[in-house]
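Sharing in case it's useful to others searching the archive later.

Someone asked me privately for the predicted structure of Germination protein YpeB, so I'm posting the question and my answer publicly. Question first, with the sequence:
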Amino acid sequence: MNAHRFPAQVISFLLALTVIFAGSTLYYGIQAERAQTTLWYGHEKAYSELLDSLSELDAALQKIQYTGSPSTISTLSAQIWRQSECAKSALSQLPSSEAGLEKTQTFIARTGDYAYSLLRAASRGQSVTDEQKDALASLCQTAQNLTGELSLLKARLDSGVLSYEAGPNSSALSDSFHTVEQEFPEYATLVYDGPFSEHLDKQSPLMLEGQSAVTETQARTAAARFCGLPEESLSLSYQGGDRIECYSFSTADGISIDVTRLGGLVYALSDPRAVGSATLSDEQAVERASVFLQEHGFGSMKESYYTRFENMLTISFCATQDNVTLYPDLVKVTVALDDGGVIGFEARGYLMSHHTRTLSEPVISEEDARTAVDDSLTILSSGLAVIPTSGQYELLCREFICQTPDGMHVIVYINAETGIEENLLMLIESENGTLAL
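And my answer, the predicted structure tokens:
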């Protein structure tokens, strides 16, 4: 009897497993279908938002060409900038957009950034110049063409010829994105004061202009001298770079040092050794860093701010000229707080920007500049400084370090030629250093 019951139990068990497996398959199949549907709706929403934003951007680009009112220019510039941000956000949510739409992304970003530069100009009462109107007309035409191309793709998506992901009866949208990129129309070269201005693509290191190229051997000698190591301990690990071509050397214990091909100047140093317990104060570390810079040919440097992390202090130094702080000429030095050794160095800002400047006499006196500082701020100190703009141009400003009513510190920069407030930085101070925002 037990022998007869055993097969029946096995069969019942197998049937139960089959039911469970079928139920699980059905459940997870429904879940997968729901997830796919949610993803599809997300793509649909993003594509529609992209088209809407581009249409709004196009309309604002058309209007701004025909107005001379600074207030209207401000409004329309803000609309263009806002719609470009919306378009960038929508574009990032589409499949394969990062790999497939580089030119489109660049166009949208540059258009928004260009509009933001017009917004700043309008806030100072400036009208749109004829040259800027030509650039806006070119951007407008490109926006219209792009909107038209993407609208055609949307129609193909709606008809099922295209899909967001490749299917048995449809092509993937990313393939059509590739076609849009290949046929992307030319538009005006945008040179303006902003981070996407095309003049930045051609920017070269001022510190290296006129410098002769050095050999690998000469670069190794410079690297060894800088970090106090024997030359034979340095092996070439890489040679190249974009705007600053370097020889990159490394040691067996992980120290790396980059030396520029032009001029043989040290670009960066990194020592990844473990740092022990701190024995130096922050002030002592700043002094060590300052002495290090002097010993390596960086004269007339001024400490700016520092940050502390895991017993390492990173100090930012700026060059000075005639008692004017040159903020673009930036060098960062990292000091280990266990023994005061320099374990990090980076001079990109210094190499890109440092040169002897012709500094004009300020038109705006310190007394007049003080009147441009908000009355709620208490001015603690003042000076002159060269600051970089978002497009890496430079402005001579009156610098005022101030205190807010609640005890926070801010820095206000007043243009020394026009008296206009150019920038305001909030200083976030903590036990780990100071961060300027």
